[in-house]
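Subject: Predicted fold for 4Fe-4S ferredoxin-type domain-containing protein, 758 residues

User T.R. writes:
Posting the sequence so we have a shared reference for the thread.
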Amino acid sequence: MGFTFFETMSGEFRIDHKPMKATVWLACEVPQIEAFNDGVIRLDGVIHIDSWADDLPLSGELRISFLRKKTLEYELRFDDHEGRKCRIEGRKDLGITRRLLGMTHLNCEVFCESSLVGSGYLEFDLRDLMSFLGSPQAGTSARHLPIAAGPEPEDVEALRMAMEELISAGAKVPAVSEKTLSRTLKLISQLPPHAQKGYWAALHAYNALRSDGLKRVVSLPIMIGHFGRPDYLDAIGVPAYDNPVREPRERWHQQLVGPEVLENESTIECDVVVVGTGAGGAPLAASLAEKGFAVALVEEGRWADRADFSGELETRISKFWRDSGLSTIVSNAPLMVPTGRVVGGTTVINSGTSFGTPHAVLKEWRELGFGSDFEPDNFSEWTQKVARELGIAPAQDAWLGAIAGRVAVGAEHLRDRFPELEHGPLPRNAPGCDGQGLCTLGCPTGAKRSTDQSWVPRALKAGAQCFTGLRVARVLMRGDKAVGVVARGLDEFGVHKELRIKARAVVISCGTFGSPILLQESGINLPALGKNLSVHPALGVIAEFPHSLGEPWRAIPQSYGVHGVGDSRIRYEGFYVPPGLMAAALGEYNDALNSWMDSVNRVGQFGFMVRDRGVGTVRRGPGGRPIVTYKITPDVLSLMKIGLANLCEIMLAGGAERINIGVRGLGDIASVDHARALSSEGIKPWHLSPMAFHPLGTCAMGVSAKSAVVDLRHQVFGTEGLYVVDGASVPSSLGVNPQVTIMSMALRAADLLAQDLS
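User M.O. replies:
I've generated the structure tokens; pasting them so everyone works from the same file.
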């Protein structure tokens, strides 16, 4: 495993016969420890040369030859303020007679547009030795992991056996065939390399051990592949989604810049660089651009036109969901979390539900020392701006879906026990919605006001640029001051591109999993960094009714909600997943599975989530991938059992005949007595199949660097010009869908940052 260390050198150059003081700050990525014998280390950093290079981003290589030549050879490349290509070449001599001087003294030559323009030296100050020795961090930012090899013949045969064991033909469910095999293999091939290897290992372990836990893991891509087959979808009436909506190219689209049009190495300058285009980065970028600042957005995902939101659902999952929707959390329950990887981030694949920040939560933050602008009346200044931009309004009755009516009837049966119970259409950000039922796969009509349909176009119309398909490898630091970023990616031809951006302010908006990783890779080390993770653990039930519920795919997936049923930390909201995902969630196989999948028009889905505490962590793993850990605590488990009991009672009172709750070891729920008993069942976390939808808090805002990562102005403690504005900076779980809160905090942050820049 590699690691990264940080080095500062200062000295003097004579350029065009003029003496100039110089300093470089370097982040040095060591791919593996053997590179310290003979190898190449990648360099990113910042260079300052008096009267020439004012804190410009640089990149380069350090070639180490301890064994053969006993030298360290540096090449540092940067673009000067006039856009000229410049480089510094230098060598440290490690001969035995001058080992100490050789390790600290770098003789240099300076080139501009290939012409030698000067020379000089840089030196490592031995007074910085202790901080240098404390700088190494495990891992590097090298994100392009090896491409996974295809499956071996024994892998394919094991997969074929598992498919035939888990799925049998039904009235509408087709028999397993080569279609199922090819679709499943395609799904697996779209996983990241480490996930592919993990899947094949799990498959062989299942065939050997027949573990129920492994069965659910192994069956997931099989179910998605089989029940996404066109012949099955046609049999149950699901449309093909093969009529893409065309939209005209507007002038602001020219501000979208993919890696294909970039040089192999290029540098730009701006006032503010914003890393990420989701609920945090996009509103902030739009606000600052409209205030007249030069803004650059950098997004790892690509821009998606409306035409891209068509075709097979599995293809869209692999295109827009990170890790094809199989991002997992190390937990005491098999916890998965969907996040977006596209311009617009997770707002593109969320349900569209749009609640403001609960007043009770704002009161909690005030008690933690937050300022008066977090008083509900004051905070509403930004929330109202968000509501206007998103067009927030209750879901329209025409597209609630039949399940909403069943839930309404069931909820009323509980009113005597829960007089404060409320139920009704949920507030949404989708004016003009026509019930396509595809919110979580990207709205095919653009009715949902995700940031790619709202804040990003506003930013680009105001002059911002958005660089897509590039992942920021690190923030460039000049001591404690952020001065830019370096981003890398591959164009469609597989050519590596590198973009260096110099900026007066750097805003990290990579999401709750990505932002702490980027800070760690940039040398930031704070006690609370990557901690305090909350995720709104959620469960869903699948209920069968005696009569048809129509076509659930022609309705809003999350249209209706119930609140005030007992503990306020539990919020009940609708959901709908396509047949392949529903089949995986049922946890049933063969005839038991077919009893559901042959009659999907009589099946309804509903769920709930729990407001949790920040008990999880995010830390950097191999290749810069986040390793996320989270524990379902006894308190949260108790709430989940209560939620299951209440939700099952609502569904039964609404007419359901049986309910699949997805709890291992417990069968279908068919009576109120059985439903109420769930709250006291001996259910363990590992019996559940929960989801996590709203990760927050890993770069929490607060008043102290001991317990938080950013201050009340979103600036990272101990730094200058470095900010985090996204779900990571939200200090606690909300108990409601968080996009409006994140956007409101982003607009507040933009106002504060504009003051700082002015």
